[in-house]
Amino acid sequence: MPSLVHPASNRSDLLLVSFIRLLLQFFCLISATSVSLECRGILNGSFVAENFYQETLQSPKNAFDLSLRPPLFSEFQGQTRVRERLELMVEAAKQRSDVLEHVLLSGPPGLGKTTLAYILANSMGVNIKTTSGPMIERAGDLAGLLTTLERGDILFIDEIHRLQPAIEEYLYPAMEDFRLDIIIDQGPNARSVRLNLPRFTLIGATTRSGLVSAPLRSRFGMTSRLDYYGLKELSQIVQRSAGLIGVGIDANGCEEIASRSRGTPRIANNLLRWVRDYAQVKSDGFVTRSIADKGLEMLDIDRDGLDEMDKRILEALVVRFQGGPVGLSSLAVSVGEDSGTVEEVNEPYLIQEGFIKRTAQGRVAMPRAYDKLKIALPSDRQGKLF
Question: Has this prediction a pTM greater than 0.70?
Answer without folding.
Answer: yes
